Amino acid sequence: MSAATPPTAPAAPPASGPGLWRRLRRNRLAVAGLVVLVIVVTTALLAPVMPLADPAAQVRSDRLLPIGSEGHLLGTDHLGRDLLSRLIWGARTSLSVGVLATLIAALIGSLIGLVAGFAGRRVDSVLMRGIDVLMAFPYLLLAIGLVAVLGPGLINAMIAISVVNIPFFARAVRGTTISLVSAEYVDAARALAFSPTRILFREVLPNVLPVIIVTMSTTVGWMITETAGLSFLGLGAQPPTSDWGAMLGAGRDFITRAPHVMIVPGTAIFVVVISLNFLGDGLRDALDPRLK
Amino acid sequence: MRVYALRRIVQVIPVLFGVSLLAFGMMVLIPGDPARAILGSYATPENIATLERQLALDRPLPVQYVTWLGNLLTGDFGRSYSLNRPVLDELTERFAATLLLAGAALLIMLVLGLTAGIIAAVKQHRWQDRVFTVGALVGLSVPSFWLAMIFIVVFSLRLGWFPTSGMRPAFGPSGPMDVLHHLVLPATALALVASGVIARLTRSSMLEVLRQDYVRTATSKGLTRRVVILRHAFRNAIVTVVPVVGVQVGFLLGGAVYIETVFGWPGIGRMLVTAIGTRDILLVQGGVVLVAFTYVLLNLAADLVQAVLDPRIRLQ
């Protein structure tokens, strides 16, 4: 794969800078990650029109067929369900839950960070002590505690993972906001008697946006892994809903007889997450070369 | 140093207070009657009455919180109804197993992460750098629960080198070597992901330090490369790595939930997953509080170590 001619058409350059795409394109791993992600997302989106077996159809006589079996490219699971079809349909659940969790965490976390950094003093210290408490819990443990309270389920798992990731956004955004509050154009806006809300959202937010994007791109892989992890533990997606994590969890019981049942969804998570990380690293370097 | 240590210890108190509030909130936030929810299928009228008295559930929330905290501080974590034994007894047994696993993983993480980071920095832009940098990213991207299963397939089922699961008491008939034998796979699976973070950080921190004048001075006064790298550069680079090691301990303690589940390791993580299944809220709460407190204190320790290594920090 050549870095100069990516097989997919480049997206329009984001508002953050016309040179962004040009800089990103020079990073071969980031481009490879992007290509893989485009393929995965397109496949997941096209699932309803693809000639796939019914992901829920159980054929008892075709249980635990190996990879490459006739009519079942990736084999079947313990109930004789087609793994390729389940993988593609599961991608829709896993990816949308992971991305949604990222958006929720980014929205709430950034808002906390913006307000704390902008208001300063009391508001800042109250909000950030709250964030400190969230950070005082080991990452996954807080999520598990939340699921214990809310009850197992895909939506609750997603909420739990979002909450756990709020501090990362709040801290990063607060830091940048503080550095921007004393900027000359913010002083100018104040001199023009703009309302604090307007200054915050029209002057500060656009300049904090790159930080939010970078934090999103570096955490989305984690969030996909962790929601899959909760499903794997039986705390996320409940049958008949199935995501990659639940597929992995089911495959664990057949690890001796048919390891491919867990290898298939695990590989999928790994490929998506590493692509996201390659792209995230590239995006970070392209948006802020100083962080390299 | 003493002033700095005291200040850091005082700073930890509100965090611990917040942690206790949040853990207490777990019980309050459960929809429905808390006593009934805690007791689940064990909710006989007598049990409900006993528990309501114990937890002061008929009193206002602040009173409930103080009662709960008082119980906690005197080591009374309540009773696990699904296991029919005090929560504290179960926690101490389980926590020892988790600490052993996480401790071994921490050791592996440090050896792997620091070595890879140093080599990558010293050989910047060479093939070693590329291999370790990409390797670290691979480590970061592998779901640990999947890696654990791959380990079982390759090293236990195919090669037969290690047992697939379980752990026997270290001082039982099988002895401590047997524990070690059972520990290798889970600890490595847990450590690999976390070592990616350490490797990346060590690399960038080393690159920063290697550019400094004192490193050039050390080289030009004729010290061997080995001494320059390990004694002059690494000792300064490690200062930025130490606090992140504290954070990574959190990932190890959290990630232990997956690893313990896959390997049947009798630690707190597996206990939590089972307890959620049986809706044993007091057990979950106790486990979360214990691990979170440990984590906060370990982070405090990491900060103090950092201040010992770098006097500038304690003078800030």
Textual characterization of the structure:
The complex is a heterodimer of chains A (292) and B (316). The model of chain A is unreliable at 1-15 (pLDDT under 50). Chain A contains ten helices and no strands. Chain A is mostly helical and 292 residues long. In chain A, 68% of the residues lie in helices and 0% in strands. Chain A has one domain: MetI-like fold (Orthogonal Bundle), CATH 1.10.3720.10. Chain B is mainly α. Chain B is built from 13 helices and two strands; from the N terminus they run H-H-H-H-E-E-H-H-H-H-H-H-H-H-H. Chain B has helices at 2-29, 34-39, 45-54, 61-73, 87-122, 127-141, 144-158, 175-210, 213-220, 225-263, 268-277, 281-309, 311-315, and strands at 79-80, 85-86. Chain B has a two-stranded antiparallel sheet with strand order 1-2. In chain B, strand 1 and strand 2 form a beta hairpin. In chain B, helix 5 crosses helix 8 (175-210). The longest helix of chain B has 39 residues, at 225-263.
Short description:
Chain A is an all-alpha fold and 292 residues long. Chain A is 68% helix and 0% strand. Chain A has a single domain (20-43, 73-291), classed as MetI-like fold.
Text of the CATH class of chain A: Mainly Alpha
CATH superfamily of chain A: MetI-like
- Look up the CATH topology of chain A: MetI-like fold
Separation, N- and C-terminal Cα atoms of chain A: 24 Å
Largest sheet of chain A: none
**Structural shape of chain A:** elongated
Binned, the helix content of chain A reads: 55-70%
Q: What is the total tally of β strands of chain A?
A: 0
Can you tag this structure with a few keywords?
heterodimer; A: 292 residues; mainly alpha; MetI-like fold; 10 helices; 68% helix; 0% strand; disordered N terminus; B: 316 residues; two-stranded antiparallel ribbon; 2 strands; 79% helix; 1% strand
Secondary structure: elements and pairs:
The complex is a heterodimer of chains A (292) and B (316).
Chain A: H1 20-25, H2 28-46, H3 83-119, H4 121-135, H5 139-150, H6 154-181, H7 184-191, H8 196-232, H9 244-251, H10 260-287
Chain B: H1 2-29, H2 34-39, H3 45-54, H4 61-73, E1 79-80, E2 85-86, H5 87-122, H6 127-141, H7 144-158, H8 175-210, H9 213-220, H10 225-263, H11 268-277, H12 281-309, H13 311-315
